[in-house]
C-alpha cells in the first residue's frame, strides 16, 4: 500500500499508466476505488500517467489535525502531493467535491495545472445551488456518525443519490459492485462531517475568471445532487472552457461513462 508524506499526513496514492501526468481527485465520501474501473481508468491510463489518491481523511489517508478543514486545504494537499512525487505540473480532473478541489487548485496554484476537467461539480457562491439529493447525503452522513461505522446498508443508502433510477433498476450487479468499492476503505466518520462543512462553505466563483487554462466542464442532466445548471455558472466565468452535458447521466456520470471518458481523452489530446 503506497503512502507518501504530504504536509502533516501520510497520503495513500497509486500510479496507473504512462505519459503526461493526470491528477484525479475523488469527491465527497469517496476513495480512489470509486473511479469507474471499466471505462474511465483504463481509457485514461492508455494515454496518461494517472495519479490516484485518497483525500485527507478519506480511504487510507490520514485525517491529520488541521485548524480548519476547507476545500482550499485539500487543494493545497493535492499540490503538495505533486511536490512529493516530483511532478511540476499536470492535467487535473475532479468529480463532485473533487471538482471543487480542482478549481481551488487551479485558482491558487495555476502553475501546477495544464488542463482542467470538472465533472458534476459547482463553485459555491450565490448563484450556485445543491439539489435535493444533497440533503439526503447530509442526512446519511449524520446517521453514519450516530451509528459509528460504515456498513453495507449505509453505503447502499448513498447510491440513489449518485446514480439514476433507470441505471439502478437495469444494473443491479453494478450497484452491488459500487457498494463494494465504497466499503474497501470508507471515509473516516469525522472526515465525513468535515467534508460537508467544507462543501457548504465553498465560494470560488469570484476566482474563476482568473483560471486561464483550457477547461472541460461535464454535467449530468439527471443529477439531483449538484444539478446541471451549476455548470453554466462556472462556464460563463471561465472564458477558456467548454461545457458538455450527459443527457442520461446522474451525479457520477456512470450511465454514459464510456462517452464521458472518450470526451476527456479528446479534450486532453486536442
Outline of this structure?
By secondary structure, the protein is an alpha/beta fold.
Question: Would you kindly provide a written description of the structure presented here, covering whatever features stand out?
Answer:
The chain is of the alpha/beta class. The protein has one domain: Rossmann fold (3-Layer(aba) Sandwich). Helix content is 39%, strand content 17%. The chain is built from ten helices and eight strands. The chain has helices at residues 40-45, 71-84, 97-108, 132-147, 152-158, 165-170, 172-184, 189-200, 229-235, 257-269, and strands at residues 3-6, 9-16, 21-25, 49-53, 90-95, 113-119, 215-220, 241-246. The chain has an eight-stranded mixed sheet, sandwiched between helices. A hairpin with a 2-residue loop joins strand 1 (3-6) and strand 2 (9-16). Helix 2 crosses helix 3 and helix 4 (132-147) runs antiparallel to helix 8 (189-200). The radius of gyration is 17 Å and the shape is globular.
The counted number of beta strands is 8
Strand order of the largest sheet: 1-2-4-3-5-6-7-8
The CATH superfamily is: Alpha/Beta hydrolase fold, catalytic domain
What level of helicity do the residues show? 25-40%
The CATH class turns out to be Alpha Beta
Topology pattern, helix = H, strand = E: EEEHEHEHEHHHHHEHEH
Q: Which outline best applies?
A: globular
How big a fraction of the residues is strand? 15-25%
Radius of gyration computed on alpha carbons: 17 Å
The residue ranges in which pLDDT falls below 50 over 5 or more consecutive positions are none
The CATH topology annotation reads as: Rossmann fold
What summary fits the major beta sheet? 8 strands, mixed
**CA distance, first residue to last residue:** 35 Å
